[in-house]
Amino acid sequence: MKLSARQICFFLAAVAPAGKLVLMPSVLAARTGNDLLFPALAQIAVQTALVFAVLLLARDGRTVYAMIADMAGGLIARTACIVFAAFLLFASFVPLVEQKLLVQSLFYDTLPSYVAFAPFFLFSAFLCAKPLAALGRVWDVLALLFLTGLAGILLLSVGSADYGALAPVGNAGAEGFGRGLAETTGWFYDAALLLPLAGKFEYKKGLAWKGALCSLLGGALILFFLATYYGIFQEIAVTQLFAFAHMSKYFSGITALGRIDYLFIFAIAFVMTFCAAMPVQAAADALTDAFGRTKPLAVSLSVLFNAALFAVMLVFNFAPSETIAAVTRRLFWIFPLFTAGAPLLLWTAVGIGRLIGRKTHAKK
Question: pTM above 0.90?
Answer without folding.
Answer: yes
